[in-house]
Amino acid sequence: MFGAVIHAPGDVRYEERPDPTILEPSDAIVRTVAACVCGSDLWRYRGIAPVPKPTPIGHEFCGVVEEVGDAVTTVKPGDFVVGGFNPSDNTCPVCRKGAQANCLHGAHYDGAQADRIRIPWADGTLLATPGTPDEDLIPSILTLSDVMCTGWHAAVSANVGPGRSVAVVGDGAVGLCAVLASVQLGAETVIAMSRHDNRRRVAREFGATHIVTERDEAGAEAVKALTNGIGADCVLECVGTESARLQAVGAIRPGGDIGLVGVPHGDLPINDLFWRNVGVKGGPAHVRSYLPHLLELVLDRTINPGLVFDLDLPLSEIGEAYAAMDERRAIKSLVRP
Asked: Which of 109, 236, 261, 271 has an alpha carbon within 20 to 30 A of 285's alpha carbon?
């Protein structure tokens, strides 16, 4: 089979790789129908995270089950499935609390930007659709492996709900999905912070009520101007850089809640947050908790998070898929084997 391998910053190659095999009775093998590049993959592509050796890459996928281990009972060959970026057994004491991202037996994929993928803990990770989904739904189903669930996690972590005001820091796929999640959860005011026309258009389509183009202190002041001069009830930080985190802190009101889902690359001003009674929660999304509800919303066409994909390429052009996102020529790149 073939798949993506990152060799060094700026160097992702389409290479022949060994076919995956069942290693544990709880495994499954999935033939990939669609995969994609994640903003977190760009940390390595940009040299911010180390690449000590050539490494298969990718963690978002949907596809068809080809083979299952003897212990797998919830999916079978021929099922169309989606699975979260963080495999979990969904039975350990932590998973039973709904925190599957922190499963005591959690695992990782050996590169999901590939023709086939070995899925650890298939019963706890995969969710099958009722029959083969319509082709036009595949991009939205693919978002459920990460970005839609991550945007949802940001909103849940910040206690987004009816009547609340929300500011979203970050206009990548996760930030845009956080806008969509906030609207679905009933927020009254949803402020997308974006300078890019194509991303603002998607934010508006997802239900953003306001767009703020300013950043830093001016951005915080613009959010306050839309929220009775005090800042948003909820701020969703969907980037992870220190500047994004400080933007979130500047935009939150006293007593508000920040949802952090950007992979962290900076500190928070804890003393400031303490004295302003600001709540902070977040981390990797508990995808398996959110999947059933969000898959239902996608299948009945209530939401269309697949709009975040504005570049669709064959897997063989994985290098261009990365370059386009790195250069902000694409919001999110979808690749098909």
From this structure: 271
